[in-house]
Amino acid sequence: MDKKATWDRFYTENSSKTTAFKNFEWFFGFDAVRDLILPLLQTKSNPDALLQILDMGCGTSALGPCVYKHSPVPVRVTCADISPIAVRLMQEHVRSKAIEPHSLSSQLEFIELDCTQLHKHFGPGSVDLIVDKGTTDALLRSKEGKGKAGLVLKECLEVLRSSGSLLQFSDEDPDARLPWLETEALQEHGVKAADVGVQEVGELRGVVYYCYQVTPRPVVKQ
């Protein structure tokens, strides 16, 4: 599940099954997590600039567009996916729906981007919030993708502001995910690069989901 061709095929086949576009949601939709995301945006409000939000591995989910639509503060939402098929489908869908944001200065874009190479699009310390709904899960459950999952986390920590956050939504139990996150967030010499927390999202269709929040630690200059 870490291969671009796999996702191109998935979105091509999924879109060909119906003439009308329908968002495909991994796990759950925006309403399940809006009370976790929207209040967090208000705590990060910057009156001088748009908040930079990344929906990483967006696929054809409505999550990113819903954040753009409902955010109480001005945001620039970048929905990024490795599949150009998914990006094209979302661009066409959003164009046809003409979504109006709560804040008229908010912006929304869709780009093709490998999440192991976030630095190619975002500068260091430039992103306020990264939302990961199932992307890391897909990598961790692929034998060849486990190394990529660690690289993705390090890329996220590189592009996040010191006041920023990474939200990983997952059905993986904290007993497994928290130790992995703690280990991957270590810098050289065992210094922690981030703090990690977890809260339960809720039970949906018999499965319990969690929100893992990763917050970069300020860099201490020697």
TrEMBL record:
Biological processes, Gene Ontology terms: methylation
Catalytic activity from the UniProt record: N(6)-methyl-L-lysyl-[citrate synthase] + S-adenosyl-L-methionine = N(6),N(6)-dimethyl-L-lysyl-[citrate synthase] + S-adenosyl-L-homocysteine + H(+); N(6),N(6)-dimethyl-L-lysyl-[citrate synthase] + S-adenosyl-L-methionine = N(6),N(6),N(6)-trimethyl-L-lysyl-[citrate synthase] + S-adenosyl-L-homocysteine + H(+); L-lysyl-[citrate synthase] + S-adenosyl-L-methionine = N(6)-methyl-L-lysyl-[citrate synthase] + S-adenosyl-L-homocysteine + H(+)
Alphabetized Pfam families for the sequence: Methyltransf_31 (PF13847)
Annotated Methyltransferase domain residues: 50-167
InterPro entries according to UniProt: Lys/N-term_MeTrsfase_sf (IPR051419), Methyltranfer_dom (IPR025714), SAM-dependent_MTases_sf (IPR029063)
Principal location: mitochondrion
One GO CC term, this protein: mitochondrion
Hydrolase is among the record's keywords: no
GO molecular function (one): methyltransferase activity
Annotated compartments: Mitochondrion
The keyword S-adenosyl-L-methionine is annotated on this UniProt entry: yes
Keywords attached to this entry: Methyltransferase, Mitochondrion, S-adenosyl-L-methionine, Transferase, Transit peptide
Family per record: Belongs to the methyltransferase superfamily.
Function: Protein-lysine methyltransferase that selectively trimethylates citrate synthase (CS) in mitochondria. Seems to conduct trimethylation in a highly distributive manner rather than in a processive manner, and thus introduces a single methyl group per binding event.
Name of the protein in question: Citrate synthase-lysine N-methyltransferase CSKMT, mitochondrial
Organism: Labrus bergylta
